[in-house]
Write a structure and sequence with these properties.
Helix content: 40-55%
Organism: Pampusana beccarii
Largest sheet: 2 strands, parallel
GO molecular function, one term: ATP binding
InterPro entries: Depp_CoAkinase, P-loop_NTPase, Rossmann-like_a/b/a_fold
Shape: elongated
Structural class: mainly alpha
Number of strands: 2
Number of helices: 8
Protein name: COASY synthase
Keywords: ATP-binding, Nucleotide-binding
Order of helices and strands: HEHEHHHHHH
Strand content: under 5%
């Protein structure tokens, strides 16, 4: 349940950093670096261990280690508690202490690998597609990109535009689904239309075959307009 566990560095790299730290602190120090396959590691089975360094928040873990050691017939370890350094620069969503979780938070938005160079892709305009369910943050990200200078194309608005009288899909939708989908003012009643296609794969495909190509065409037109605007 670590924060942003996908951004945790590989074990080999973390080991190398720890080894470098230990050698900086005391070059003559003898040490073993052991990977932990469970919450306890060798602390509950190694009879040579005498002390365990804990912090205020890991003290319970130290007590749990000693309980396991007693169950295994080993003497308790002395628990030496240290105070963790505070991070005066931490932001609201970060931990108060200096921690790897906060460091991973700060990595958000950085590239994990260089952009893939594809000669088949035009160098401009660069098109980003934002998808996701309701509440996933599409609007917030779009606003952020807009403030950075992006040209925004709202596919939902284009989806409404194709249905309006005179719109590119209006006549074909009415011809396919009948005049009963119209309001008194001639506009398409989307609820009535939705009821006709809901749960009917054939009717839904008929509708999307009409509407989606028109939306795609309008998107391409707007991409071209964005390109002209630079």
């Amino acid at each position: 349940d670590k924060v942003l566990m996908e951004l945790i560095e590989p074990y080999e790299l973390r080991t190398a950093k720890l080894r470098e730290f230990l050698e900086d602190v005391k070059p003559s120090l003898r040490y073993d670096i052991v990977p932990l396959a469970d919450p306890y590691g060798p602390a509950i089975t190694d009879p040579d261990l005498q002390c365990l360094v804990v912090s205020e928040e890991t003290r319970k873990g130290g007590d749990a280690v000693n309980k396991k050691r007693l169950e295994n017939g080993l003497p308790e370890l002395a628990l030496y508690e240290i105070v963790l350094m505070k991070d005066p620069e931490h932001s609201q969503n970060e931990e108060e202490k200096i921690s790897s979780s906060s460091l991973r938070q700060r990595l958000l938005g950085t590239l994990l690998r260089p952009p893939r160079q594809d000669p088949a892709l035009p160098s401009r305009p660069y098109v980003i597609g934002l998808t996701g369910g309701t509440g996933s943050g599409k609007t917030s990200i779009a606003k952020l990109l807009g403030r950075l200078g992006a040209f925004l194309i709202d596919a939902d608005k284009l989806g409404h535009a194709v249905y309006v009288p005179g719109g590119p899909a209006y006549e074909r939708v009415v011809a396919t689904f009948g005049a009963e989908i119209l309001n008194e003012d001639g506009t398409i009643n989307r609820k009535v239309l939705g009821a006709k296609v809901f749960g009917n794969q054939e009717r839904l495909k008929n509708l999307t075959d009409i509407v989606w190509p028109e939306i795609a065409r309008m998107v391409k037109e707007q991409i071209g307009e964005a390109d002209v605007q630079g």
